[in-house]
Amino acid sequence: MTADLRNERALAVLVEDFARSRVSRRQFLTRAAALGVGASAAAGMLAAATPQMAAAQDAEPQMGGRFTWGYDRDVNKLDPVASGWADPGYNALYEYTMIRHPETGLPVAALAESWEVSEDGLEWRLNIREGLTFQSGEPLTAEIVAANFNVFRDPEQGQNAIFWATVTDVQAADGNVVVVTTSAPFAAFPETLATEYSMPYNPAVREELGDSFGATGADGTGPFTLTNFAPGQECLLTKWPEYHGSNIEFLQNNGPAYVDEVRFVPILEAGNRAIEIESGNVDVVTNPGGQDVDRLAANPDLVVVEIPQPSNVILSLNHQDTSLGFDDIRVRQAISHAIDREGIAQAVYFGHATPTQGPIASNWKWYEPGVEEFNAFDPELSKSLLDEAGWTEGSDGIREKDGVKLSWTNINFANQPFNQPIMEIISENLREIGAEMLNENLELAAFGEARSAEPASWSQEWLWSSPMDVLIIFGRILPSAAYNGVTPELDQAFTDWQTAASEEELIDAASRAQLEWAEQLTKIPVVTANGVWVNRTNVHGFTPSQSMLYPLFNDVWIEQ
Fold this sequence. Notes:
This protein is an alpha+beta fold.
């Protein structure tokens, strides 16, 4: 099926969803624009669908039932301070302080019902909603939110403390206000708050449970409580009847959840996800096998939404490795130009992915298109760059210089499903230019240790809704700025991002960071997978967006 035909069917589904009140008018216009439909044409579609919509409005949300999500990973513990991966269950168990609007990507109120920034940009005052409690009954206070923020920004505790580098102090003030003091203006602060690892939790329960918090128990303010956490089997959350309700402007349900349970079931084999959703064993699956997407899109019982993820597969070279020449930009560029990104998108994802020549996918609100002049597939250019750098072809076809072969072992994060085939294709691409990259595929703990040991190269996929924050952590921290060859220009762009006083300054810093990263190849970008979301037509209120990792569950209900 061609992309045009997929879009045509996606539009037909979108019109049906609007007619049956599964999406709002604003959601319809946003998704139609993403499919290339102009504003006037979209308005005509809305007008045509209105009679159908009037008939469908009689369908009231139904209470009860279990919403089952066929998850494309194993479940991870739901701990905002430290966990291996941010699962969608965070959005059921906890709530954001601020959240991005699905259409604009800009911050709107959540637990913080409003906020003010001082004239000099050095103080944020967050007005926390009054009268809220955790699921345990403990009041949500400004003191607790401030304590959370101080944990998140502590490098000894918060796994994303680097995102809080500008924050120097957090205190509670009268009126349920959290006062955040910064060393410089910090316009990027909402970007950090609107992420899973900044969601407030009850510190008393976390202290009581220790390392098992988020697994054996948890305490958040979200509409569901944690009932069972069993890796390899399920993560089960149960409706919290006393939920205080949400004030998020784009949600329709402001009270307790409609469904009784939300259950996440790991389906690790991509080919099995289509089978499970087609058979009705699950209500939603994410990222079915690329070969199955067109078939699922043609099924009248299913709705398929496809959105490029805020992600990127990266190949990270050790810029300190002078023997392999990774300190030489010509060698890094030769490796990058040898990678057939479009071939990877087709062979591994069956076209449901986007080749990336810069560090951030093109659908990000502040994407810099200038990165597209770098890193095009050009094996002949690769060979000439290696020639220029003094790497000559050896008797076995592998290039060498000063008695050292251009051969190394790449450490690959095996927990991510597509990494292994991607790295195998890249290895084949590199053989064509006389380089040999072997792959060692490691599970989470072993991979973390190996990466910290600064190998010749390593590879993984990142997924995060604040891409510039990711670039900072992958530039300055993982595993070190020296390993990554962070240039003064890139480091300055990072600093400017974290000290920007306005959106205009954020955009400028993000642009410079993307261009410098793409040219200097701090890490080599490869491909951004599309997030493919498939739900049965009796599922209402399930609305993925590209501004957040996962949908919220407040509006979800099942038509019996």
